[in-house]
Amino acid sequence: QVQLVESGGGLVQPGGSLRLSCEAVGSGFSIWSMGFYRQAPGKQRELVASVTSGGTMDITDSVKGRFTISRDNRKNTVDLQMNNLRPEDTAVYYCNARIRTVSDPRYRGVNYWGNGTLVTVSS
């Protein structure tokens, strides 16, 4: 079994910063990519940022220059440093990982999701 454990959400003022963290916990797996998605009330879930084990990054345009994604492959963790936060960043943020196992050995893995952590940006 593999679980994604998230932390770091909370309430912050516009212009402030938060750091989200996620760890993949378990055994017998490897990771193609890790990152974060978010879902605001009444809106679809969208990619925020992700990084593959080889270092390829994908960051949505609305957060470029403000958010930074980083990964430690040895620890199976990913961090999202969020700076200059805006009210429109308010959402539930979900850790995502594409994980390969013996039973699901596809090269790019299978999607796993954390339970989500709420980020609220408000004055």
Present the secondary structure layout:
Layout: E1 2-7, E2 10-12, E3 18-26, E4 29-39, E5 46-52, E6 57-59, E7 67-72, E8 77-82, E9 91-101, E10 110-113, E11 117-121
Notes on the structure:
The protein has 123 residues and is an all-beta fold. It is built from no helices and eleven strands. It has strands at residues 2-7, 10-12, 18-26, 29-39, 46-52, 57-59, 67-72, 77-82, 91-101, 110-113, 117-121. Strands 2, 4, 5, 6, 9, 10 and 11 form a seven-stranded mixed β-sheet that branches. The chain has a four-stranded antiparallel β-sheet with strand order 1-3-8-7, with no helix packed on it. 28% of the residues are buried.
Which characteristics define this entry?
123 residues
Number of helices: 0
Low-confidence stretches: none
State the total count of DSSP E strands: 11
Strand content: over 45%
Mean pLDDT: 95
Shape: elongated
Structural class: mainly beta
DSSP helix fraction = under 10%
- Calculate Rg over CA atoms: 14 Å
Order of helices and strands: EEEEEEEEEEE
Q: Give a quick account of the main beta sheet: strands, pairing sense, barrel closure.
A: 7 strands, mixed
